[in-house]
Write a structure and sequence with these properties.
heterodimer, A: about 290 residues, alpha/beta, Glutathione S-transferase Yfyf (Class Pi), Chain A, domain 2, Rossmann fold, 4-stranded parallel beta sheet, B: mainly alpha, 7 helices, binds iron/sulfur cluster
């Protein structure tokens, strides 16, 4: 059994527990285990874009320092937003000794961050280390006939220097789907933002984005979408369900980890959804139980 | 686009352009106004100024850009950043304009309470961060 230190983040630890459950099930089937950090805090969710607020790197630095203090060289994330925020902060701090020293001064009685920790997204672990061929070999319930549109959103691939794949023509999710026996439907909307946190200030904007994304998926013949971010998932599920005139566009979304778990014979941990994915799965002979 | 900011005889400030440059770490003068950023921006239709127009006002030091709505419709999605032929990180310029606006005491929008029910924490933290000077 291989182990890797794991940072859940607030989204996964609260609303997106099914993302984590799916990942755990899937990794067990692949002889891997995620070990949650004994102590962690919010990464800050958004990477600081201004040059004058080092303070906003203290949160990520604390997480990175704790992982390093636990004797690790890398840290696994599931949520794309955590991945991006931690990865970009890591690059920002490691690139400049003076910044690093100043942030460490804030950490005070905690261990220093020495720089150089590798922040890894689960998709990178699957693709680059475990390998999609090995994943394919472990598939016990091929997702035959299931037409799935990957939704990448923003932070998984942008900016380029902190992305898991090419930002304009990514394939990491399509390739995973192919390994699981599903049919990947690539849409033009897959890399266009869902509205992200604008959902809190302008829910209508998020509703219209969800409608456009769903429309593109349906036009491509997809019956299900997959996401790698709790906020994308929320917007594509809740905001889509609320949108006026979306009754023909009710294409469900699940986390990629849930489909992975299902294909590997585990529990896809389907919980509460506004747009239920179970009928689509059942129609393809992939019936699963619902968890309360 | 009814509320578009029109250029007229206004005081221009090279110092303002410099402050945006400092805060964003991006030289606004790299931008050659091709418009590619706005062409692919998923939120351009909600903006009173296109991202390229925000850049232009910054270049000429027109502080009225601080009253524009466009930076608040920007979700920092970085679609423009990966596409800009001049390598400008437009999201950082948008952030600098937002911060300078906030630091002048402006509060551009509020969290929609009804919409916030069961909202993921990451949305609330993200939007709060966006409103913090
Ligand atoms: S894409 Fe770049 S160069 Fe073109 S208008 Fe936008 S910021 Fe300027
Ligand atoms: S980062 Fe902002 S301006 Fe650029 S494409 Fe995204 S929303 Fe538009």
């Amino acid at each position: 059994m291989n182990t890797i230190l794991y940072y859940p983040g607030c989204g996964v630890a609260d609303q997106a527990r099914s993302m984590e459950k799916g990942a755990r099930e899937a990794l067990t089937a692949l002889d891997w285990e995620m070990q949650e950090m004994s102590r962690w805090n919010c990464c800050g969710t958004v990477y600081s874009l201004a040059t004058d607020d080092l303070m906003r790197h203290v949160g990520p630095a604390r997480v990175l320092a704790r992982a390093q203090d636990a004797g690790q060289e890398r840290l696994l994330t599931l949520c794309s937003m955590c991945y991006s925020t931690l990865k970009r902060s890591e690059q920002f701090l490691t690139a400049d000794r003076e910044r690093l020293d100043r942030v460490n001064a804030f950490l005070d009685d905690e261990p220093d961050y020495r720089g150089g920790l590798r922040v890894v997204h689960l998709l990178e672990l699957l693709r680059d280390e475990i390998g999609y061929e090995a994943v394919q070999e472990r598939v016990v319930r091929p997702l035959q006939g299931l037409k799935v549109a990957p939704y990448y959103g923003c932070t998984l691939t942008r900016p380029r220097a902190a992305g898991v794949d090419d930002p304009e023509r990514p394939t990491v999710l399509e390739d995973l789907l192919t390994a699981l026996g599903a049919e990947a439907v690539a849409t033009a909307e897959r890399v266009e933002c869902c509205g992200a946190y604008l959902t809190a200030s302008s829910p209508d904007v998020a509703r219209r984005r969800a409608v456009d994304i769903a429309r593109a998926a349906i036009a491509g013949g997809a019956e299900l979408m997959i996401t790698s971010c709790p906020l994308c998932q929320y917007n594509l599920d809740t905001r889509l369900a609320e949108a006026r005139g979306s009754s023909d566009l009710r294409v469900p979304s699940v986390y990629f980890t849930q489909l992975l778990a299902l294909a590997l014979g585990g529990d896809p941990a389907v919980e509460e959804h506004e747009i239920d994915p179970l009928p689509v799965l059942a129609a393809r002979g992939l019936s699963v139980e619902v968890k309360a | 686009m009814a509320d578009q900011v029109r250029l007229s005889k206004v005081a221009l400030s090279a110092d303002f352009a410099r402050r945006v440059e400092e805060l964003s770490g991006q030289s606004p003068y790299r931008c050659y106004q091709c418009g590619k950023c706005g062409a692919g921006c998923p939120f351009a239709e909600y903006m009173d100024l296109l991202p390229s127009q925000v850049l232009r006002l910054v270049q000429i030091g027109d502080e009225r850009v601080l009253d524009a709505g466009a930076p608040w419709s920007c979700a920092s999605c970085l679609a423009c950043e990966v596409r800009c032929p001049r390598g400008v990180d437009i999201a950082k310029v948008m952030e600098a304009v937002r911060l300078l606006s906030l630091r002048k005491g402006r509060t551009p929008f509020a969290v929609d309470e009804a919409a916030s029910r069961r909202l993921p924490q990451i949305a609330l933290v993200g939007i709060t961060r966006k409103m913090t000077p």
